[in-house]
Amino acid sequence: MAHVEREDPRVHQEALRLNKFLALAGVGSRRKNDELILSGVVKVNGKIVQELGTKIHPLRDRVTVNGQPVQVRHKLYYILFNKPKDCITTLSDERGRATVLEYVRVRERVYPIGRLDRNTTGLLLLTNDGELANGLMHPRREIERVYRVRLERGILEDHFSKLRRGIRLEEGFAKPRQVELFPGSRRKELIVSIAEGRNREVRRLFEALGYTVKGLERVAFGGLTTEGVARGRWRYLTQSEVHYLRQQAGLET
């Protein structure tokens, strides 16, 4: 299970009251930390600090308690979820519909990497590692997404060829990396691979050709698949999978 201990990036964004910083680091409650500060065992940059309300900057300031350095750390979670139909990718829904967090329950708040619309099923990654999420979603990284598409009728050969060549959408030209017919589907099912991840891109490609998408499943993202994960179930990523995703996001060489 990939719970990775790393410094919590959220505490680096602004100055914090010293007692809050110590609380985030797990030293004790804010009241207890105030007592520690008053007792003279807390140092900032080598100097004893006894003034309550003192603010420190976690990136610049070194804090010790009884001579021991203190750092804020939290568990980073990396989760692969096989999203069912009618599940909302947002973290809350004003209409009371089921969200991903009703299926994936962990101690830390996790967030989807990208989105799948309500009727799209399949692979969705969730994490509280904002650095990785931003890297994977950046268009420059061109992370591959693979979909299985089911149409209401078989696709014509000229439309199939046109799809492979690319189609102009409202925001520009879109060309799938790969388009293949699913064997034995009478041309009603296709495998489509894209790298840009525009909003509803796969559905809009087929709509532009006059087809209605009856079923859409993301079967792979960044080389990971839902193999072994039933619909509505989830698992933690392995350490090697996390490393592989970080490489694709440009965070590791």
What does this structure look like?
By secondary structure, the chain is an alpha+beta fold. It has two domains: 3-71, Roll (Structural Genomics Hypothetical 15.5 Kd Protein In mrcA-pckA Intergenic Region, Chain A), CATH 3.10.290.10; 76-248, Pseudouridine synthase, CATH 3.30.2350.10. The protein contains six helices and 18 strands. Strands 1, 8, 9, 10, 11, 14, 15, 16, 17 and 18 form a ten-stranded mixed sheet that branches. A four-stranded antiparallel sheet has the order 4-3-6-7. Strands 2-5 form a two-stranded antiparallel ribbon. The two termini are 23 Å apart.
User: What low-confidence regions span 5 or more consecutive residues with pLDDT below 50?
Assistant: none
> Number of folding domains?
2
Run of helices and strands: EEHHEEEEEEEEHEHEEEEHEEEH
Helix count equals 6
Looking at the structure, the CATH topology of the largest domain is: Pseudouridine synthase
Distance between the termini: 23 Å
The helical percent reads 10-25%
Strand content: 25-35%
Task: Give average pLDDT, whole number.
Answer: 89
Global geometry: elongated
Q: What's the Cα radius of gyration?
A: 24 Å
Q: Which sheet architecture does the biggest sheet show? A: 10 strands, mixed
CATH architectural designation of the largest domain: 2-Layer Sandwich
